[in-house]
Amino acid sequence: xxxxxxxxxxxxxxxxxxxxxxxxxxxxxxxxxxxxxxxxxxxxxxxxxxxxxxxxxxxxxxxxxxxxxxxxxxxxxxxxxxxxxxxxxxxxxxxxxxxxxxxxxxxxxxxxxxxxxxxxxxxxxxxxxxxxxxxxxxxxxxxxxxxxxxxxxxxxxxxxxxxxxxxxxxxxxxxxxxxxxxxxxxxxxxxxxxxxxxxxxxxxxxxxxxxxxxxxxxxxxxxxxxxxxxxxxxxxxxxxxxxxxxxxxxxxxxxxxxxxxxxxxxxxxxxxxxxxxxxxxxxx
Length: 284
Description:
This protein is an all-alpha fold. The protein has one domain (32-272). Helix content is 66%, strand content 0%. The termini are far apart.
């Protein structure tokens, strides 16, 4: 049976991160200072980077992405997903991988990435991950690994393990979206049609775990099987988790494809205007 490794409240320690507690769920607000520190550190780092890079980032886009991450990591979604409902855990996946990661990349200053690409030890790595096949393989590897029952059940019983799992998902999101959402236009090597194909293939990323959630005839994770009773039965919760993961990812990919198509059409229209050759005029 899962053990309760949550830090005791009061003088013995602080509950810094959402993890499995084994305690009955209540709607009483619970503080998770680790999530606040993560958000605060991200804002501080972004402010510093914007100042150093000339201020070409977008606070609105970055802030929206960071807000999605905060919602996923803090109470109540973070707590429910960490130790009560698998469906909410998969909602965390959608928020971190499919929403927070691309928006944070979109809102980041291009100057900062130009600086990183200028570093001899970072350029090969960023260039390699920017290629479709390595990005898909690495993202798939992270997603599949972080859905193994042994990994999930082992990680959720400690705050450090739960934190690492959440950060792994955020990293998977950065890797997945990097070939498409690169803040440095001159480093973008994929054409718009290639990005369409890449994102369609990316819909397969959550396919394997969600298929297990759909068709398994038994609870996959002890964390949610042994969690305190909630409104949903364990198998119903598991089935809904597969729907949330698959459908949520598909909807976000569909929105991204629509935005890319609009930008492609706008860019193509601008290119055609530049290629317009004025009709010659003949003197009398």
